[in-house]
Amino acid sequence: MPGYAIGGVAVGEGFEQLKKVVRHTAPQLPADKPRYLMGVGYERDILVAVQAGVDMFDCVLPTRNARNANAFTPTGQMRLRNAGFARDGSVIDPACDCAACGGGFSRSYLRHLFMAKEMLGPILVSLHNLRHFQRFLLDIRRAIADNGWSLVTERWPVASE
């Protein structure tokens, strides 16, 4: 086989069950073949899977959540439709270099776009969420190379167990 897939742990099972299955299954698969975990997308799930030996993931989570005004941040999700963002001039994540944050689009403006049903809102938050996960996975790659797992949990509290 060119690679192996692990499935069935993203259809309602809790985190503890996902962790148990992945930690049991991934090490039993050949180390010289790609190991793919299907449909898993939350940061703590990805981190546990990588630490167990999983190489690849796919998930609709970043874009599906973005279409519903939910932005990912290192400390948790931000629900941009909440009234508390109506006058918030901050970007989603000041440390992020995506088109939304780097472009200076404020939380209040993004909220306005969603409330007005303007497509630019879901587009900008999708770009942000995808970049969020790219940055997260780049830090995981650094942690693997440097054996510095504490960097990941320090910079990404949302990934902590």
Query: Which strands sit side by side, in order, in the main sheet?
Result: 1-2-3
Sum up the overall morphology in one term.
Answer: elongated
Number of domains: 2
Q: Can you write the helix and strand succession as a string?
A: EHEHEHEEHHHH
Major beta-sheet overview: 3 strands, parallel
Rg over alpha carbons: 17 Å
Compute the number of helices. 7
Low-confidence stretches: none
Give a short summary of the structure.
The protein has 161 residues and is mainly alpha-helical.
Could you walk me through the main structural features you see in this protein, from its secondary elements to its overall organization?
With 161 residues, the chain is mostly helical. It folds into two domains: 4-59; 62-129, no CATH class. The chain contains seven helices and five strands; from the N terminus they run βαβαβαββαααα. A three-stranded parallel beta sheet has the order 1-2-3, covered by helices on one side. It has a two-stranded antiparallel sheet with strand order 4-5. A hairpin with a 2-residue loop joins strand 4 and strand 5.
Topology:
Blueprint: E1 4-6, H1 15-25, E2 35-38, H2 43-52, E3 56-58, H3 61-67, E4 70-73, E5 76-79, H4 99-102, H5 107-115, H6 120-146, H7 149-155
Parallel strand pairs: 1-2, 2-3
Antiparallel strand pairs: 4-5
Helix pairs in contact: 1-2, 3-6, 5-6, 6-7
